[in-house]
Structure to design on (111 residues):
């Protein structure tokens, strides 16, 4: 059974075409304006949040959650960075904590 998007597109057929070397056919309707925005939102909803993987999660498909408070200036700098790099604050924080622990792991052995 084919999956259809909110705009009525056959997502399985589109996936097969995108993964092939088949050229674009003339006569294809291109979504524009509100229709394009609606189709884009539908595709994002289908994708969802990427999994961190079973080894990084708790074993039931969920990853542990941490909350932190940041000084206003640091938070603003983080917002500017994630916007410029097209990434997320969560991803930057995960990488920062990982790099910090990699650098300070010898200190943990003595604790």
């Amino acid at each position: 059974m084919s999956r259809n998007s909110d705009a009525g597109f056959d997502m399985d057929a589109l996936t097969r075409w995108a993964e092939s070397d088949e050229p674009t056919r003339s006569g294809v309707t291109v979504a524009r304006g509100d229709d394009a925005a609606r189709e884009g939102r539908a595709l994002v909803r289908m994708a969802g949040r990427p999994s961190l993987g079973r080894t990084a999660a708790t074993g039931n498909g969920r990853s542990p959650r941490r909350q932190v408070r940041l000084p206003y200036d640091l938070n603003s700098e983080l917002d500017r960075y994630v916007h410029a790099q097209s990434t997320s604050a969560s991803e930057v924080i995960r990488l920062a904590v990982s790099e910090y622990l990699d650098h300070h792991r010898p200190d943990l052995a003595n604790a």
Summary: The CA atoms of residues 57 and 65 lie 10 Å apart. The two ends are 57 Å apart (CA to CA). The helical segments are 11-18, 33-47, 72-85, 89-109. The chain has a mean pLDDT of 76.
